[in-house]
Amino acid sequence: MSKKTVIIGATPNQGRYAYLAAGMLTEYDHEIVPIGIKTGELFNKPILDLRAKPKVEGVDTVTLYIGPRHQPEWYDYILSLKPKRIIFNPGTENEEFELRAEAEGVEALQACTLVLLRSHQF
């Protein structure tokens, strides 16, 4: 079943994990919504400007690719997307945000999106 996934920290840089995740999510037939501060396109989807805090409906998963020190200004926005879960990829772990998400009924998962997809746990 397709899970609409918002990629926070999306980038057209092919060497970044956010790019690899976008590719693999697309390959596994999950709808992606790339959001970041870089402009461009990912797998025929425009990268939406994070600073504009775009509205996105029907979000299943937010997968994070921005480090903990850059996350606080986006807490409210990310939670406003009403995701079922937030995946804190390696290097994005943030206990403060994880606890806040869980307090709002959002599953906070310290995991790697790529591994979850490959192991059919996504």
UniProtKB/TrEMBL annotation:
Coiled coil: none annotated. InterPro entries: CoA-bd, NAD(P)-bd_dom_sf. Residues 3-117 form the CoA-binding domain. Transmembrane segments: none annotated. It holds the Pfam family CoA_binding_2. It comes from the Bacteria. Signal peptide: none annotated. This is CoA-binding domain-containing protein. It comes from Chryseolinea serpens.
